[in-house]
């Protein structure tokens, strides 16, 4: 039997971390343009990106953030959240571990979850607001200290 060395044993410093793959450059440029659009045009720009790329989590987050109607915001955020869960699972996430803001490719999902928390509060869904807030802190323990919408 051979000797086991430290390099043979994968060591982790805590829960596993999932990083979503970055969008292709063309989609990234479209998302950046939608984000930079004037406030009155932002929703339409985000909708065009979401229609062309339904898996673009940043587009759903931007739609939720820019919707004036809290019910529309809730619906957009929920789509981004659920598409994000699908993307996380496809990237190896098994329902636990970190999904941190420091990785730009995770931000569309985290923004969607934050938008869902905010929209839930706006429509009086206090229990869902609390669940989303807790989930954000579980995914990224530094969430409260670093990012507020």
Explained architecture:
By secondary structure, the chain is mainly α. The protein contains 7 helices and no strands. It has helices spanning about 25-35, 40-50, 55-65, 70-90, 105-120, 125-140, 145. The termini are far apart.
Task: Please tag this protein with its features.
globular, 61% helix, mainly alpha, 0% strand, 7 helices, 149 residues
Describe, in short, the structure shown.
With 149 residues, the protein is mostly helical. It has helices at 25-36, 39-52, 57-66, 70-90, 107-122, 126-139, 143-146.
Q: What is the β-strand count?
A: 0
Q: Given the helix and strand composition, which structural class is it?
A: mainly alpha
Tell me the distance between the termini.
Answer: 56 Å
Which residues form runs of ≥5 with pLDDT under 50?
A: none
Portion of residues in beta strands equals under 5%
Radius of gyration: 17 Å
**Can you write the helix and strand succession as a string?**
HHHHHHH
Percent of residues in helices: 55-70%
Look at the structure and give the mean pLDDT.
Answer: 91
* Domain module tally: 1
Number of helices: 7
